[in-house]
Amino acid sequence: SGNVGALYLHQGKLDEAFKFFDKQRHICEELDSKQLLQHALGNMALIDNIQGKYESALGKFDEILTICEDINDKFNISSTYGNLGIAYKNIGNHKSAIEHYNLQLEIAKKSDYKRHICSAYTNLGKVYHIMGDFKEADNYFKKSEKIILSINDKIEESNLCGCKGMLFVDMGRLDDALLIYEKSNTIFSSLKNIRGEALIHLEKGKILYIRDDYGKADKELSSATGVFEQIGDLPYYAQSLILHSKIKRELEDFDNAQAF
Q1: H or E segment at 11?
Q2: How far is Cα 3 from Cα 210, in angstroms, rounded to an integer?
Q3: Which of 138, 196, 125 is nearest to 168 (CA)?
Q4: Which of 22, 49, 61, 202 is the most exposed place for a label (fewest CB within 10 A)?
Q5: DSSP collapsed to 3 states, 184-225
Q6: Count of CB atoms situated within 10 Å of the CB of 254
Q7: Which of 122, 156, 154, 126 is nearest to 141 (CA)?
Q8: Residue among 45, 62, 63 nearest 54 (CA)
Q9: DSSP assignment, residue 113?
Q10: pLDDT grade, residue 1 (50/70/90)?
C-alpha cells in the first residue's frame, strides 16, 4: 500500500495517495510495526498540509513524535519537530513554530544532521519574515545557505531560493526576487517537482502583476493554476485563482475573469 501511495503522491493524486497510506496505517497498527506506522502517518500529514488541513496534520505529527520517542528514533524526532514547526506556522502560531524549529536544531546539531539544520534555519527565516523581522529572517537564510552549499543539497537550495525571493519582494527588491526565482525554478525543474515550479510561477506572477505587466503575469498564473488544481493543493489553488481573475480583468478578458 505504501509503495502505491508513494506513486500516487509523486503523480500529484493526493486523495488516492491518502487512501493507500491510510490502508498502510491500519495494517501497521495490526502488526504493531511502529517504524512503518510513522512513515504512513507522515505521508498522510504531508497531504493534509498540502490540502490545507493543518489541524489534522498537527494531530498526526504529534502521534508520530510519540512513536519516535518510544523507539528512541533521534533522526525522525528531529524531522518531526521540524514538521510540527511547519504545522504551527500554517495555523499562525508563530511562537510554537519557533519553539519546535529550535527543538529540531538542538537535536540536529548534536547528531550532525546537516539537512535538518539547514531546514530549521530556513524555516526559522520564514517565520521571522512573516512576523516582519526581515533582518532576522535574512540572518537565518544566510546560515542555511552556508550549510546547503557545503553539502550541495538541491532540494533545500530550491526551497531557500523561493523563501529568499519572497523576502526580497517584501523588501522592494523585485529584480533580485525575479533572478532568484529563476534559479529556484531551474532546480525544481531538474528535480521534476511540479508543485515547486507552480509555486515559483505564482510568485513571479505576483511581481509581474505589481509591475502592471499583465500579459506576462497571465502566462505565469496559467502555468501555476492548472498544477495546483491537478494536485489538489487547495490553499494555493484558491490564491492563484484570485490573482488570475484580477489579471484577466486588467486584460479586459471579462468572460474568463468571471470563470475564475
Answers
A1: none
A2: 43
A3: 138
A4: 22
A5: HHHHHHHCCCHHHHHHHHHHHHHHHHHCCCHHHHHHHHHHHH
A6: 10
A7: 122
A8: 45
A9: -
A10: low
Measure the CA–CA gap between 234 and 53, rounded to whole angstroms: 10
* Per-residue cell: 16: 488516492
Determine how many CB atoms are found less than 10 A away from the CB of residue 29. 13
Longest dimension (CA), the chain: 60
- Long-range CB contact pairs, 167-173, < 8 A, 24+: 167/125, 167/129, 167/134, 167/137, 167/138, 167/141, 169/203, 169/206, 169/207, 170/129, 170/134, 171/134
Read off the pLDDT of residues 93-121 as tens digits, 9 standing for 90 and up.
999 999 999 999 999 999 999 999 999 99
How far is residue 189's CA from residue 228's CA, in Å, rounded to a whole number? 16
Q: Note whether 89 and 101 are within 8 A (CB).
A: no
* Cell triple for 78: 528531529
